[in-house]
């Protein structure tokens, strides 16, 4: 007895083709690191790729997700990445669903935005439309698309109250990311996204489904550790007054296929300054060497503010950075695994 094969409809065939052409592409275990841009923090750059390239940094051709609670420094990291890309002659597209970025904030970080490279999409689909139609002129450098934040994006179904189970957004993220992952890699673009955190029965998670964590090459969890305060004496009686001038946050590399994951890096964000790399480097040298003063390359100071002023006055930022990189590499070398090649049988 012969079995008759059912002919597939054109709709079924189209669906099968769609599944094949949009399925995830196997990624290499290690991302190629030739050029990088900076997060504005030497220590965070090193935590991301310090063993792949001297000084570390963020390579192109990947998606990076920076997530954490409000006010921890997520937007600051995205702004620093954009400014670094522009400094190196790359182009930037800033997508701001939250609509909170202003000109003064951009000026602090040295980021140049106009109507041409600043958009405010509100839907997940619109973000992917912007990515797919983007045609930067300079493809020799790392070009950046920043999205701040993914949690603020919605879907048409959600807007029309047709997404009863809240699944549409995650589905659209997965489909969109699957389509653009090759585009990003081939053009050496960096897609830098911020995201919020939520709590559920299984612990902490980020909005937008599982597609974002899967397709992100680097995921950084940012949390505020403490406020940065200064004390000044006011008036004839020298009354001490304290003021918060910034925040000290900890960046934890939750996922990385660029370099070793699970590293931590402190960042210091000072209001009207941005990520204070000098402060971070001075504190790192003091903490890691056990010194009681701040090492300013050729001189030491007991107070942080005096040390910062000396470094800036003498333009010793590069020398200080090199000293930090040397120490970081020295520490990393202590943990190298000197093992023989694995035997196969």
UniProtKB/TrEMBL annotation:
Keyword list, A-Z: ATP-binding, DNA recombination, Nucleotide-binding
GO BP: DNA recombination; DNA repair
Gene3D superfamilies membership: P-loop containing nucleotide triphosphate hydrolases (3.40.50.300)
Pfam families per UniProt: RecA_N
GO molecular function, one term: single-stranded DNA binding
InterPro entries associated with the record: DNA_recomb/repair_RecA (IPR013765), P-loop_NTPase (IPR027417), RecA-like_N (IPR049428), RecA_ATP-bd (IPR020588), RecA_monomer-monomer_interface (IPR020587)
Residue ranges of every copy of the RecA family profile domain listed in the record: 33-197, 200-280
Keyword Nucleotide-binding among UniProt keywords: yes
Family: Belongs to the RecA family.
Protein name, per record: RecA family profile 2 domain-containing protein
Species per Swiss-Prot/TrEMBL record: marine sediment metagenome
Lineage: unclassified sequences, metagenomes, ecological metagenomes
């Amino acid at each position: 007895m012969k079995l008759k094969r059912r002919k597939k409809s054109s709709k079924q065939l189209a669906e099968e083709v769609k599944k094949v052409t949009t399925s995830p592409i196997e990624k290499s275990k290690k991302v190629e690191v030739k050029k990088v841009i900076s997060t504005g923090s030497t220590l965070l750059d090193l935590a991301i790729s310090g063993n792949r390239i001297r000084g570390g940094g963020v390579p192109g051709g990947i998606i990076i997700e920076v997530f954490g609670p409000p006010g921890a420094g997520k937007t600051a990291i995205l702004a620093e990445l954009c400014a670094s890309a522009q400094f190196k002659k790359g182009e930037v597209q800033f997508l701001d669903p939250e609509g909170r970025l202003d000109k003064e904030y951009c000026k602090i970080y040295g980021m140049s935005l106009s109507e041409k490279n600043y958009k405010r999409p509100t839907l997940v689909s619109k973000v992917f439309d912007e990515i797919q139609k983007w045609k930067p002129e300079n493809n020799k450098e790392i070009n950046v698309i920043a999205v701040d934040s993914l949690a603020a994006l919605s879907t048409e179904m959600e807007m029309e109250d047709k997404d009863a189970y809240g699944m549409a957004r995650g589905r659209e993220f997965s489909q969109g990311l699957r389509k653009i992952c090759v585009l990003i890699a081939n053009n050496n673009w960096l897609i830098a996204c911020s995201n919020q955190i939520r709590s559920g029965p299984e612990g902490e998670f980020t909005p937008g489904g599982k597609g974002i964590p899967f397709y992100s090459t680097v995921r950084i969890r940012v949390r505020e550790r403490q406020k940065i305060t200064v004390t000044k004496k006011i008036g004839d009686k020298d009354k001490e007054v304290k003021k918060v001038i910034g925040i000290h946050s900890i960046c934890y590399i939750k996922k990385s296929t660029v370099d070793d994951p699970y590293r931590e890096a402190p960042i210091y964000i000072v209001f009207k300054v941005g990520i204070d790399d000098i402060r971070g480097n001075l504190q790192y040298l003091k903490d890691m060497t056990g010194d009681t003063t701040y090492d300013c390359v050729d001189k030491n100071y007991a107070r942080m503010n005096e040390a910062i002023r000396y470094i800036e006055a003498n333009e010793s930022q590069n020398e200080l950075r090199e000293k930090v990189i040397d120490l970081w590499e020295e520490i990393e070398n202590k943990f190298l695994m000197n093992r023989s090649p694995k035997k196969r049988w």
